[in-house]
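Entry 12.
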Amino acid sequence: MKGRHDIDDAAWEAIRDCIPERRVMGRPPRDPRQVLNGVLWILRTGAPWRDLPECYGPWPTVYYRFRVWEREGVVDCILRKLQKRLNAEGGIDWDLWCIDGTSIRASKAAAGAPKKG
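Predicted 3D structure (tokens):
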């Protein structure tokens, strides 16, 4: 099943070489494009990992692969490639470009609330 917001063939080809080949013994690895679409679904919806639709694979697999990709610089590679492509097309204003973190919640203590106890 392909979701309406899954990455298309052109986008996949643009970032495909950022994602390393998985050479593991045992069970065949999950399709990296399917896993990436699952990660993007989570990031887009803000849903908990356990609510990931089954069409993207088991949520622990998608979560684990995302964490590995983050640690190994795959996420940074994808971001740099997309930035380079958008820059070539005139799609980025570098004076205004930033990552929006408005959905990140801080704890009450971070806002100056008194600590319990």
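Annotation: The longest helix spans residues 74-88. The mean pLDDT is 84.
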